[in-house]
Amino acid sequence: MKKLLTLLILAVSFTVTTQAQKRDKTKHEELSTEQKTELAVKKMTLQLDLTEAQQNQIRPLIAEQVAERQKMWAKRKAMKESGKKATADERYAMKSHMLDKKIAHKSEMKRILNKQQYERYEKMNARKMKRHKKKATHKKHQEEK
Asked: CA–CA separation, 30 vs 36, rounded Å?
């Protein structure tokens, strides 16, 4: 009986600790648009060996992208909280707008970067998207359980 009680207490404490750690991950401080932009530019500089001129050209692109992402995230969060779902036309418009932005961003990056840097940039994005899709698939399977 004592062993069973000890095992039960251990299992409960382990579960509570795990849940607390999950909550801590989601409660991180939000960075400002400028901070996110600066970090992204520095990361790209390290990965792509950007020159000072390239950094100055990329900075406004990244800032616009970060601001747009935050705006869309806030809009989705508000819709989720209100319980309202987007109509098919609204989803189409959002996806179309997002794809237009991606095309414009890609062409600007192609203009700013040299051929070798652009190839590395494309590989970086491909790996990032692969990880993102894998994470989304894993999250979807976790929600189904």
From this structure: 9
Whether pLDDT at 25 is above 60: no
pTM above 0.85, yes or no: no
Q: Please, are residues 62 and 41 in contact by the beta-carbon 8 Å criterion? A: yes
Return d(Cα 110, Cα 57) in angstroms, integer. 12
Kindly report the length of the chain: 145
Backbone CA torsion sign across 78, 81, 87, 92: positive
- Say how many CA atoms lie within 13 Å of 60 toward its Cβ: 5
Nearest one of 61, 46, 38 to 112, comparing CA atoms: 61
> Which tokens hold the place of 131?
């990880």
**Percent share of the chain, pLDDT over 90:** 47
Measure the CA angle with vertex 83, ends 80 and 87; round to 5°. Answer: 85
